[in-house]
Design goal:
alpha/beta; eight-stranded parallel beta barrel; globular; three-stranded antiparallel sheet; 525 residues
């Protein structure tokens, strides 16, 4: 079985000349002809070179890996029961799904309350995140979930004021924080990530002391790539500005030959790259203390799909430092811009990574060590996947990280509101009505709650809230069927593995072995 789909993808705007006859390993057409039109990644790379490494068109899409991993969360099923109830009285009039609580608290000492077990993972300086940030901020706040501001916001802000190498003002970062805090109602939190460049600029200290941010996140990486963040720059002036601010910019905008080629139209975009961090136990603990002394109430750590030893480091360092939330992102996760083949072909996939993480948590717990609250990520979209993710790592996994899915909801919500205002509703919207109140099923509820302020909620935020309400409703139903009426009652035996391989990797029981002893007792009784 071939897991990968090499040499052609909608993500790179490439295809095969003979799509029905393709070499499975190379992805090349079975017959490659002399007068090949250059449709595949090889052909397109022959004239556009490194441009074809990245998903396209940049700034208007998110992208996620298309590799078929040997095991994923679809290889598990959720178990229900006809007996009893956990977290509520076993009474048919009380044990109904609307009474399921999907709220929880996270944090080592100080607690953050959330209405749903979701953290919207960090989206940084890409155009796609910036263009929809008002929706992400308001949507997360009114939904009561955690939202993370990604890396490089200050460095990429053309209006940032930087003195003596330290930021003193960033309108873009202020806007991102305010988008959440203007709608904040006591649930969720706004979190600010920091990478190498952010740390050098003092971005997190600025956010804590000047913008009132209480939660910050140290970033070791993500599931989409194992290098620093990248974006495209479409003007020479921006490329020069960011190189001056210390970023790696390719090709070198200060090179006269590069400037001439750009002006002649040989290429239209520069690439801005961040540096990779160098993890060291002593410097990690030093940074945690610096952030706490600066006033951070919560310190998080996010890591990606690195090798198992790095996962062990992340968990052990987070345990020793009593980190408030550790986020672990499995390979294949979505992003605004990452090398496409890297996104598909590096790292530990989510089920394997999360299973290792559970094993490591068990080892620490057995020694009486502190186990931090954990969020896992890597392509979670709907309520069944959320249930399975929480169950696989119970009781340690507390939240599910999401990014592409909430952003998709924001796209749709914005598009609907724009179409209503322009009177250009497509049929798949207009079948529900012609107004915001008719199309968004949650609009009446929100209008009743916010009154005249309802009109201040961005269309994308309506989309996020409505999408999250669907997840809440669906998760309540799944939990009720398992007779688990709070998130803390979800356990590993609430799911079963559908294959022997999934059972071996995860430690979750194979479905034919589940309840074996109990079933025998019932039959013999």
């Amino acid at each position: 079985m071939t897991f990968s789909k090499p040499n052609r993808s909608d993500a790179t705007l490439t295809s095969n000349r003979t799509p029905k006859s393709v070499c499975p390993f190379s992805g090349m057409c079975t017959t490659c002809i002399e007068d090949c039109p250059g449709l595949c990644e090889i052909g397109k790379s022959a004239f556009r070179g490194k441009e074809v490494i990245y998903p396209q068109p940049f700034g208007h899409i998110t992208a996620g890996a298309e590799k078929d991993y040997p095991i994923d969360y679809s290889h598990f099923n959720i178990m229900g029961t006809t007996v009893g109830a956990h977290g509520i009285e076993a009474d048919s009039d009380k044990a109904i799904f609307p009474n399921v609580s999907v709220e929880r608290e996270i944090g080592a000492e100080n607690k953050i309350k959330v209405k749903l077990p979701i953290v919207i993972a960090g989206m940084g300086s890409t155009n796609i995140a910036h263009n929809h940030w008002d929706s992400l901020g308001a949507g997360a706040a009114i939904s009561g979930v955690i939202l993370t501001i990604g890396e490089n916001i200050v460095g990429m802000d053309p209006n940032s004021v930087i003195k003596n190498g330290q930021v003193v003002k960033s309108p873009n970062l202020e806007y991102r924080v305010r988008s959440f805090t203007d709608f904040y109602e006591g649930y969720g939190a706004i979190v600010l990530q920091g990478n190498v460049e952010d740390t050098r600029l003092g971005v997190q200290e600025y956010a804590i002391q000047e913008l009132g941010v209480e939660a910050v996140e140290i970033k070791w990486g993500q599931g989409a790539k194992d290098i620093g963040g990248e974006v495209k720059l479409n003007t020479l002036e921006r490329a020069l500005q960011l190189k001056e601010r210390g970023y790696i910019v390719l090709p070198d905008p200060e090179d006269p030959h590069v400037q001439e080629a750009y002006k002649n139209g040989a290429f239209k975009e520069f690439e801005r790259h961040s540096r990779v961090g160098m993890v060291d136990e002593e410097s990690f603990h030093k940074r945690v203390e610096e952030l706490r002394k600066a006033g951070a109430k919560y310190v998080f750590l996010k890591t990606g799909a690195y090798r198992p030893a790095d996962l062990a480091r992340a968990l052990k360092y987070a345990s020793d430092a009593k980190i408030d939330l550790l986020t672990v992102d499995g390979a294949g996760g979505g992003t605004g811009m990452s090398p496409w083949r890297m996104m598909n072909e590096w790292g530990v996939p989510m089920v394997e990574l999360h299973s290792l993480l559970y094993q490591y948590c068990e080892k620490l717990a057995a020694k009486g060590k502190f186990v931090p609250d954990i969020a896992v990520a890597g392509g979670f979209v709907l309520e069944d996947q959320i249930f399975k993710g929480l169950a696989l790592g119970a009781p340690y996994f507390k939240l599910i990280g999401m990014a592409r899915a909430p952003l998709t909801a924001a796209f749709v919500g914005r598009n609907i509101k724009n179409a209503v205002e322009k009177g250009t509703l497509p049929k798949h919207y207009s079948q529900y009505g012609n107004t915001i109140e008719q199309i968004f099923i949650t609009a009446a509820e929100l209008k009743s709650k916010y009154g005249s302020d309802f009109d201040k909620i961005p269309g994308g935020a309506l989309g996020i809230y409505t999408y999250f309400e669907r997840i809440k409703h669906g998760l309540q139903q799944l939990m009720c069927g398992a007779r688990k009426f709070t998130l803390d009652h979800i356990t590993r035996d609430d799911i079963a593995a559908l294959t022997r391989e999934a059972a071996e990797v995860s430690g979750i029981k194979y479905i034919m072995d589940l309840d074996k002893e109990e079933a025998e007792k019932i039959l013999e009784g």
